[in-house]
Amino acid sequence: MIDNYKKSNIVFSFGYYQKTDDPNVIIGLNQIFENYIKMNNKRQKNELKMPYTNCMIVNVQYFKNNSDVINILNEIDSSDCIFSNRWGDLPIWGYILSYLIDNNYYIEDKTISYTHGSHVTTINP
To answer: Where are the domains of the chain?
Structure first.
């Protein structure tokens, strides 16, 4: 699987999309991304979707070297909204992928199957 991702330049993979997170825990996140793309003459690359992040495969080096990702994570960190607005990894990854990463670099891989015990959720049974 990983070798196929490398050959296809896939840098992020997950088993399931969800449309959004609870609106009460993403207050202000959209504004940070909208401001970032406006101030940096960018555009939103894809429809906003949230990858289910309990099981994901990430090319850490790619994201570590992506200046847009580093810059937006610094803005998120300096906002302190992770604490006050409860932003979690699911919406942050969703916004990063949707706003900053071309969709040919990540996939919803339905061959990833697992059960998340605390949520009693099975993904791709």
So the answer is: 2-111
Q: SS3 for 121? A: strand
In 3-state terms, what secondary structure has residue 122? strand
Quote the pTM value: 0.91
Question: Which tokens hold the place of 7?
Answer: 């050959």
Instruction: Summarize pLDDT for 9-35 with one digit per residue, the tens.
Output: 999 999 998 878 888 889 999 999 999
Share of the chain above pLDDT 90, in %: 74
β-strands 12-14, 106-108 pairing = parallel
The values of phi and psi at residue 22, to 5°, are -55, 125
- CA-CA distance, 87 to 25, in Å (whole number)? 6
